[in-house]
Amino acid sequence: MQTRDKLLQYSKEELIDLIELYAKDSLALDGVWFQSVEKKDGMDAAIAHDANAWERFTFAEAQRIKRFLGLPEHPGLAGLEQALQLRFMAHIVEAETALEDDRLVYTIRVCRVQAARERKGMPYHPCGPVGLLEYAGFGRAIDDRISCRCLSCYPDVKDETCACSWEYRLTENNEK
User: Fold this and answer.
1) CA 149 to CA 139: how far, in whole Å?
2) Which domains does the chain carry?
3) Which of 1, 20, 76, 142 has the lowest CB atom count within 10 Å?
4) What whole-number distance in Å separates Cα of residue 141 and Cα of residue 176?
5) Are the CB atoms for 117 and 125 separated by under 8 Å?
6) pTM for the full predicted model
7) What is the helix (H) or strand (E) element at residue 151, kind and residue range?
């Protein structure tokens, strides 16, 4: 029996649970390799590898989601909002979007990575610089006119009510 056929045996609820399991596994894999490099070569080396990995992965993830949703070449902020809700991590973090006129704000209230590091007695991951590569790259892959800036993210926390927050806008010089 093919894997696709096996999946048809499960209820909708079971498949949703499986998606969440896969998302947790993917995030755990990301953390395991990061901590391995961090332990062996230090935080700076781990972050350098992390930046490269997330920049490449994010583009591929965004392109697959864009195709899945059938989004046009320039879906704007509304298309980005749809796509953000289907990222692999979207199913396991407390996140929200707010689309207001000319900007979209994406906020993660609780971050599984930082919570896990805290539970293990580890220092917080300084994810802001890598996060900017990740979130900006995702936005650009959905619509090349989209720019992103960090509103708050460790180590540059400006909003204590969330783990991180990102602002997306359509850039005027690229609007078609």
Assistant:
1) 11
2) 3-174 (3.30.1380)
3) 1
4) 16
5) yes
6) 0.88
7) strand 146-153
Buried b / exposed e across 57-89, counting CB within 10 Å, b at 16+?
Answer: bbeebbeebbeeeebeeebbbebbbbbbeebbb
The pLDDT tens digits of the residues spanning 144-167 come to 999 999 999 998 889 999 999 999
Give the separation between CA 84 and CA 97, rounded to whole angstroms.
Answer: 8
Helix (H, G, I), strand (E, B) or coil at 145: coil
Identify residue 32 by its one-letter amino acid code.
V
User: Are 99 and 81 within 8 A, CB to CB?
Assistant: yes
Contact of 65 with 49, CB cutoff 8 Å:
no
| Other CB atoms within 10 A of residue 26 CB | 14
**Each residue's pLDDT tens digit, 99-143:** 998 999 999 998 888 888 889 898 888 889 999 999 999 999 999
Give the gyration radius of the chain's Cα atoms. Answer: 17
